[in-house]
Amino acid sequence: MEIDSYVKHKIQHIEYPPELTQKPNDLFRAYIYARENRLTPAHFLQAHRVLTEHLLPPHWRGTYRRSEMVVMEHQTI
C-alpha cells in the first residue's frame, strides 16, 4: 500500500481490504506504543509484538533472534 492511500485510509476513513491495511496499521500502533512508553527491554519487545502481529508467527513475536536471518522484500528475487 502506498503512503498516500494509507493516509487517506486513516484520515478520511477510506476502506481498503484488510490484507492491505493490517501491516501498516501494526506499524502505526507500534509507533504509538513506542511514543507513549519509555524505552526498556520489556517495552522494546512489546513494540516488536505489536509491529509483527501480521508479519511473523506468534512464537517469533516479541523475542530476540538467536540465529542469523535474511530480510528481503518479496519482490527482491
Contiguous uncertain segments of 5+ residues: none
How would you spell out the order of helices and strands? HHH
Cα(first) to Cα(last) distance is: 20 Å
Give the fraction of residues assigned to helices: 40-55%
Mean pLDDT: 91
Number of strands: 0
Query: Into which percentage range does the β-strand content fall?
Result: under 5%
Number of helices: 3
How would you describe the shape? Answer: globular
Q: Structural class, from secondary structure content?
A: mainly alpha
Characterize the largest beta sheet: strand count, sense, and whether it forms a barrel. Answer: none
Integer-rounded radius of gyration = 14 Å
How does this model look, in words?
This protein has 77 residues and is mainly alpha-helical. The chain has a domain at 16-60. The protein is 51% helix and 0% strand. It has 3 helices and no strands. The chain has helices spanning 3-11, 18-36, 41-51. The longest helix has 19 residues, at 18-36. The radius of gyration is 14 Å and the shape is globular. The two termini are 20 Å apart.
